[in-house]
TrEMBL record, chains A, B:
Broad specificity carboxypetidase that releases amino acids sequentially from the C-terminus, including neutral, aromatic, polar and basic residues. It is an enzyme of class 3 (hydrolase). The keyword Protease applies. This is Metal-dependent carboxypeptidase. Its EC number is 3.4.17.19. GO terms for molecular function: carboxypeptidase activity. It comes from Endozoicomonas euniceicola. It catalyses: Release of a C-terminal amino acid with broad specificity, except for -Pro.
Amino acid sequence: MSDQNNIAYDKLAERFTKLHRLNHLSSIASWDQAAMMPSGSNQARSEALAELSTLTHELLTASEVGDWIQAASEAPLDSFRQASLREMAREWRQASVIPADLVKAKSLVTSDCEHAWRSQRPENDWQGFSKNLEEVLRLTREEASIRAESSGVDPYDALLELYEPGMTCKQLDGLFGDVKNWLPDYVQQATERQKSSDYLMPEGPFAIDKLKALGLEVMTLLGFDFNRGRLDVSTHPFCGGVAEDVRITTRYRDDDFIESLMGVIHETGHARYEQSRPKDTLELPVSYARSTGIHEGQSLFFEMQLGRSREFLSLIRPLLLKHLTNGKELPAYQLDNLQTLYRQVNPGFIRVEADEVTYPAHVILRYDIEKALINGDMTVADLPDAWNEKMQKYLNLSTQGNYKDGCMQDIHWPLGAFGYFPSYTLGAMYAAQLFAAIQTSIPDVHSRISSGDLSPVFDWLKDNIWSQGSRYTTSELMVRATGEDLNASFFKEHLKKRYLKG
Amino acid sequence: MSDQNNIAYDKLAERFTKLHRLNHLSSIASWDQAAMMPSGSNQARSEALAELSTLTHELLTASEVGDWIQAASEAPLDSFRQASLREMAREWRQASVIPADLVKAKSLVTSDCEHAWRSQRPENDWQGFSKNLEEVLRLTREEASIRAESSGVDPYDALLELYEPGMTCKQLDGLFGDVKNWLPDYVQQATERQKSSDYLMPEGPFAIDKLKALGLEVMTLLGFDFNRGRLDVSTHPFCGGVAEDVRITTRYRDDDFIESLMGVIHETGHARYEQSRPKDTLELPVSYARSTGIHEGQSLFFEMQLGRSREFLSLIRPLLLKHLTNGKELPAYQLDNLQTLYRQVNPGFIRVEADEVTYPAHVILRYDIEKALINGDMTVADLPDAWNEKMQKYLNLSTQGNYKDGCMQDIHWPLGAFGYFPSYTLGAMYAAQLFAAIQTSIPDVHSRISSGDLSPVFDWLKDNIWSQGSRYTTSELMVRATGEDLNASFFKEHLKKRYLKG
């Protein structure tokens, strides 16, 4: 390896270290904006974040970065540095390929569209919204076409690449096409089956400080490192902050403990991934989380695979009694009742409220539609009818004229984040496949979980996923961890076992 | 005015707007570091803040900024822009005059000294500390000499300029020299006098949430804008954040409500100054707070002039009862008792715990010593004896061998912040002079305060000080507001009236 090329790699590492540090401040300020900031400060905060974003974009796309990538790629690098260079180059290419005026135009149009959407949605104002969305779509299609041309793939694949590197429509059509076949039948069977099992709702009101204490104790059980992270409250729960200081949020209701608790468990899955990334290279893209779908895979592993298992429910049942009933045994807190409660299947309009079984229908519907919008096979004007038709087909619900609970419900499209939705169901599939592999690798995993010994599960995830960062492609990562690339049958089997047989 | 020079001024305003926005993120991340961040994240946060600080220093000291200042200064500007240019040039000059390697060396040495001081102080380790402090002093003297040469003033005056622009040793010697003459006698008379008045201590324990609710209600009474600010907890209370989002902190003790309440009142004074700066030019130095002393003047106006007045105590007495005694009248909460309690004079070792009367002794002692250290009239080795001698003289206390409660008690010197201490007593003097002017301008101000109508006081401060930013020099500001430059006699009269006659 020539010295000169070593220098180029080192220069890149130095630039990405600088970006890592500056992005630290953006992440904390964004967390603060959602969890702490009073509303009157919003404009100043947004301006400050935009200013730093402009600056980091300049630092990332500066011409010398391209030169360093070129120089570093011409030298023999060891395999770690090859992977590191590949990931730095990906970041640089994705940021550099779009002309500055398109970046700015999209930022303005999406900011306006999202802002207006916040009041248009409650007013069911499709006319007003669709005009803005057309602009967002127009610029996103322009972006997709530039990205596609630069990387030699189809436009929608180029958008997928932003969230799920390496994923293609072709692979997704296979994965989701299969689900579309069996899902409507599963939903029907599951709802049929649960009609025969009554359950009791635990009765509130639940004091917020009790719900918080419960959440904190469950986070501790799940290995959250409070020396490098916090739990707070925000309107829309999320996992933010930085790997060295992970900030998760939830929201509390005094009439229900399940939403906040499952939210905390979900975000703790995201948090542990971030907290367990390789410490010595945290600042380099090669240590970043592999993809949005793999990230969601960790949160859904925690929430769905582990969190709703009978073993885990039996493990946290004493904590529920401790914090919510003053230690008293009540019928609603019996294990069988909790299990029934945690496994209700209810087809509904709203994705974010959907259960594990119906959720993929919401995602696949959006995938089909956004792919058609990007490819030009559908216009914004066609959107409400297409939505209604698919909701009828998958979940037997009509959204005719009900835009606010239909195609206006999500923030993703107003923000121009086309290509993101598939990650949710990919995450559910990754989670199921990972848990299946763990069951093979640790035959007594279920009894370990019931007994409170979660460390074998977390050690496995840490070794196979969390500590791997972006060292391998997603496909390689899954093959190394589970013996095969993503396969929807694990998810199908999981649902069958839990909802049709369990 | 030529177009070219307009352009230069506009370029400067644009650059300072960028800096204002980037500093917004540093301020919020620093507040978070003190009030929210778990300790394990400290290194990453410090690295992130240092990275942005390097970047903003580059943006401020870039050669084009000097060119713009030169070009703008050659054109006729209106008086507002003249003031604005003067303040931008001051910021630029103060940042540019010190060579980058000295900035870096001082940053490393002070960081080491402060870090070591945190354990050396409890261990009373003068030997260890003095070695580090010598290095800090050496570099600070180098800095002072460069600043002095560049601005044509004496070295210590050049350091004063960083905190109290326009202030000189000559003026300070006059202001403080007078205080040194009458203070020891005042302290003795006040302590003598209070021997005859017994008082009752309100008994705890006080619940933290009650203390917080009390603090929030008093902040509301004092006009704090919660739509652009918050109250939180930190080990060392401060006023941070940004003008658009002011973050104040306090700390609670369950055996005492006065410390947290007076802390909240003090920080609310700082906060209202920031929240009331001119909105249309917030991002420009011409709107910044005039000086550290004027800032402290606002907090001490709130805490000492207003907050410990009989009228204000009578106003908040119902709030004390509401939050601390469940509304019950108790002897310790009678107005006379509260007043006695709030006006105790107790000579002690520790500056931050000092009362209004003895506080100036602590400051003047430090001023005399640090001036001699910077001028080379004293060495670090002489420091403990000089400290002991002055403590004996001013407060009749010996610090012989007691370094931790003597010359090792403050964080300022470890941080290299020589020239800062005078601001505390200047603040007390500004506050007394401002309140005297208000009493002349609003003859019924005392009855207004007792009746809860604080708006005339705040309107006066807003018109005369807060909304003026740095439009005028400190001296001009005081003359415009009170008819004369800073005059220690108002402070002397205030203490006499409250502690020797009141």
